[in-house]
Amino acid sequence: MRVEIGRLARARGVRLLGLDDIDSTNDEAKRLVASGERGPLWVVAKRQTKGRGRLGREWISPPGNLHASLILSDFGPQRIAPQLGFVAGLACLDALRALSGNSSRLALKWPNDLLLDGAKLGGILLEGVTIAAAGGSSLPPIAAVIGIGVNCDSAPGDLPYEARALSALRVGAPTAPSLFARLSDAMVETLDVWAGGAGFPALRERWLALAAGLGGPIRVMLSRGETIEGRFKTIDASGRLIIDTDAGARIVDAGDVILARGGAKLLEQSDARA
């Protein structure tokens, strides 16, 4: 599998580090940041031996699937870093829709899962790495590492939720290299719209138009053990989930999400933003 940066990304100075095997593209990106790398740089591997999602959950990473991480350090104030998960999700879906022509089968699950026919197609892991700011530098005190995993060729079957691969699309299904090339350009385009947070209202509307389960039943399990049930109302101006419950509206920053349709569980959990 040979991957290449898209034309637009290359013209903007985005670089690529292509690897065969690595423990985790996010971990490699974090090591590069620690050694002075500031990006924009994609780290892409054919296979991960220790791929992971949120809270260290295993992310099965066989050859043929996309395993990629983007290093960014000039995105704006640290407080807006969580919005990059929405930027990445929209860029992924834009790339998938452009390549597959199956837009009606693709959706986004709050805050950063990719769905195909309601099953998990991919996920995004957003992490921050503290960096030492140079004197007079406008760079934030962190670099962002945006990890993206997409089931292109195969999907794991022994999970507590349903997963699916792009190969289920059969004719015209994007491969990992073709998806990455388009994704690298789509990230540049979406970051341009986002504009360091100024364009997030426009991206929020785009995200809501693609959101799975909007207006339907939802259950969120919080890290402190509380479970919230209600109806998925919207996301707010910063991307937080708003749930209508019997006791009133609840705002959620992060949690494991279960969407329901006709009482049936769609996904057991999603990787909430870092």
Could you explain how this protein is built, in words?
- This protein has helices spanning 7-11, 25-34, 84-100, 176-194, 200-209, and strands at residues 15-22, 41-48, 66-72, 106-109, 113-116, 119-130, 142-150, 217-221, 227-235, 241-245, 248-252, 256-261, 264-265.
- It is of the alpha+beta class.
- The strands form 2 sheets. Strands 1-2-3-7-6-5-4 form a 7-stranded mixed β-sheet, sandwiched between helices. It has a 6-stranded antiparallel β-sheet with strand order 11-10-9-8-12-13, with no helix packed on it.
- A hairpin with a 2-residue loop joins β10 and β11 (248-252).
- It starts with 6 loop residues before the first helix and ends in a 9-residue tail after the last strand.
Key words describing this protein structure:
single chain, alpha+beta, BirA Bifunctional Protein, domain 2, SH3 type barrels, 2 domains, seven-stranded mixed β-sheet, six-stranded antiparallel β-sheet, 5 helices
| Main sheet attributes: strand count, strand direction, barrel closure | 7 strands, mixed
Global mean pLDDT: 86
Assembly context of the chains? single chain
Low-confidence sequence ranges: 262-274
Helix content: 10-25%
In the CATH hierarchy, what is the superfamily of the largest domain?
A: Bira Bifunctional Protein, Domain 2
Q: What would CATH call the architecture of the largest domain?
A: 2-Layer Sandwich
Distance between the termini: 30 Å
How are strands sequenced across the largest beta sheet? 1-2-3-7-6-5-4
The fraction of residues assigned to DSSP E strands is 25-35%
Taken in chain order, the helices and strands follow as HEHEEHEEEEHHEEEEEE
Classify the secondary structure makeup into a structural class. Answer: alpha+beta
Shape: globular
Tally of strands: 13
Tally of helical runs: 5
- If you compute it from the alpha carbons, what radius of gyration comes out, rounded to the nearest whole angstrom? 18 Å
CATH fold field value of the largest domain: BirA Bifunctional Protein, domain 2
- Per CATH, the class of the largest domain reads Alpha Beta
- Total domains: 2
